């Protein structure tokens, strides 16, 4: 029934299987990719015609993770997969970026690429499998795709590159790198690194590209068995005469416009030139007008690229390695925990840092279960930043991707939770944009965290590089403008410290770049990063030693695991009482690490003292501060060390005689007490009279020392009558006879006769 075609290869210690012909047979191309026990289905469909008036390529990539793939039921009320998560959005972009440049210019048929994770083994990340499945599905679909592409993930540990490491393996190493490319060149790079050198990073990219070629060979073998007939399309360029006409009309205007260094002035001049073209072809049909507009854009690109490649002349007059002027300032927002304004040329970002407690962590529900993220970076790009009117609301795919790039750049230099037990949120609002706003976010976000007192390992800066490539001639541009990005061939972003690279992202608009181009771009980016770091240090050279007065304070303490239950209490009763009484937040984990947080240091100390009272044992001879919680006839019970009670007998309240405890203390009163004795049942005897109630200093005990009870003179036992006869006569005269035979009785305090039965000996005073 099924005409199944299959290819298998051994790759990175696991079997990669590509299969088609069994599932989704009505799609133009469908491939089931299996790697380990992770399975991804990718289906490609393409419209057979172009919508009237369409002048762009409508490629849409959707990546979706099915919770059933990991044997889980989705959380939330609806219990089904909903809108795209951040990870799904990022992987969709990961597939789109290397695929989009491989469609021919002028091909405008709508294409959907839908990749769905059907099985997940908990070790093999499905993003690489999805990229491979998408490439294979496009290759066999018959659409004009100039692929295939291959993809690979690379880790770096102990000086060795690792192919397709698991998440845990990548976390233990120094690199998490994803590379996609054709047989001849690299198309896309996405990475997070722990300060790798340029040579180490380049070696990782080349290693990944070499391994991805094995996947390309497998896709080609599958296509030889199962590919559909290629589409017949006519994309010939018959616009030479139209191009010459437009160049004669506005060529000089465009060249003059691109010599204006101010973005607004340049934009106005370009719009004036474009209006001339629209006026020229106003009477023509819609298709001719659309073609004229496209030719105008090509003409602009040629003029700019020629000036850069031949003369080294950039749009704003800079050299190819020059970075635009930078101005930074920190602490300019009074109520934020940390803030920075970073301006580079006509690109500007307001970045703020907010510090929170553990309960502010982001809960992430994914295939690998629930996890919590303590570092968040959110990027916003309002339309006014480019002087336009447009959509303003929830972040789109671009905002999510740019924010994640900045997150990857800053994440490797964050302190550990033990060093800095805060939840950190960095917010970047782009207020001007003409160039890389994601790299401005890296710089501004770093300064904002330093201003907030986050102890980063080292400052991080970022720079965007561009490329003009014509044949074998190329020029690498440092700190590209927006126009250079649009008209150039590469978007190459590098972030890092003075010690090494923390993130690298690359997108190519042509058929890929060589190792030589990448090496020059990395070297040029290193110089640019160093310059930007120097400018950032003028605003703030090191992390602030003190947190903002508006930031919560968090104190960490470690208790024995056996005491966790005591601190929490039955049903959480004790910990809720601590929070309610002190006003501080208290979090405790399974390892006995307790985090106490509040903006008021006194609240933290109160909660800490309470917890110590629960988990620590009182020391005999030590002075504590306590609170009177109950007054009885023979003394007062004092709560000290948070959860411990002890008795101050009436005789231990003052050196002179005290008739009633209420003459000295009242309920709720704070007193200083010294621990005199702890019996074998844990009952504590306290004293106030030997402690200065004002200063808490211990006083000299002027009262004569008493002998221990067992050594006091009570007369000879023979005077009390023979105990050996007690089993005999127990008549009514017994009590009186015994009292008469005892002899003189030692003096005792009046209240002693009223002491309730069952009290330990030390609660009764002779």
From TrEMBL:
Q: Which family does it belong to?
A: Belongs to the polyribonucleotide nucleotidyltransferase family.
Alphabetized, the UniProt keywords read: Cytoplasm, Magnesium, Metal-binding, Nucleotidyltransferase, RNA-binding, Transferase
Q: What does this protein do?
A: Involved in mRNA degradation. Catalyzes the phosphorolysis of single-stranded polyribonucleotides processively in the 3'- to 5'-direction.
Tell me which SMART domains the record gives: KH, S1
Q: Which residues form the S1 motif domain?
A: 621-689
EC assignment = 2.7.7.8
Major location (coarse): cytoplasm
Where is the stretch described as Disordered?
692-766
An example of a Gene Ontology BP annotation on this entry?
mRNA catabolic process
- Origin species, per record, is Sphingobium jiangsuense
Q: What class of enzyme is it?
A: transferase
Compositional bias annotation for Basic and acidic residues: 701-751
| Reaction(s) catalysed (UniProt annotation) | RNA(n+1) + phosphate = RNA(n) + a ribonucleoside 5'-diphosphate
Q: What is this protein called?
A: Polyribonucleotide nucleotidyltransferase
Q: Which domain of life is it from?
A: Bacteria
List the InterPro entries: ExoRNase_PH_dom1, ExoRNase_PH_dom2, ExoRNase_PH_dom2_sf, KH_dom, KH_dom_type_1, KH_dom_type_1_sf, NA-bd_OB-fold, PNPase
Compartments reported by the entry: Cytoplasm
